[in-house]
Specification:
Structural class: mainly beta
InterPro entries: Secre_tail (IPR026444)
Mean pLDDT: 87
Radius of gyration: 13 Å
Oligomer: single chain
Order of helices and strands: EEEEEHEEE
Largest sheet: 4 strands, antiparallel
Strand order of the largest sheet: 1-2-3-6
Protein name: T9SS type A sorting domain-containing protein
Organism: Hymenobacter montanus
Shape: globular
Amino acid sequence: MASATVDGRPTATLNLYPNPSRGQVTVLLNQKAGADYKLRLSNIIGQEIRSIALKPELTSSGLPLDLSDLRAGVYFYSLLVDGKVTTTRRLILQN
């Protein structure tokens, strides 16, 4: 789980599962404060592959995301809160 903090207090938690995945993942965002949330997916060399606006009312129970068009490998997903990266985690896609 990736957690964002403000003044040391948790404000949002982002989780993508299953990890490793075969392309179908679920995005789960638990948030505390009203803010602009985005998921940014990058490849191993830091190029942005996807940027997805996250609406807490749609992602609190799990939002399906299809990444099956991407090649197998290691990717990084970041939680952006109001345009600032708060956390980054690794996602492994398998064939």
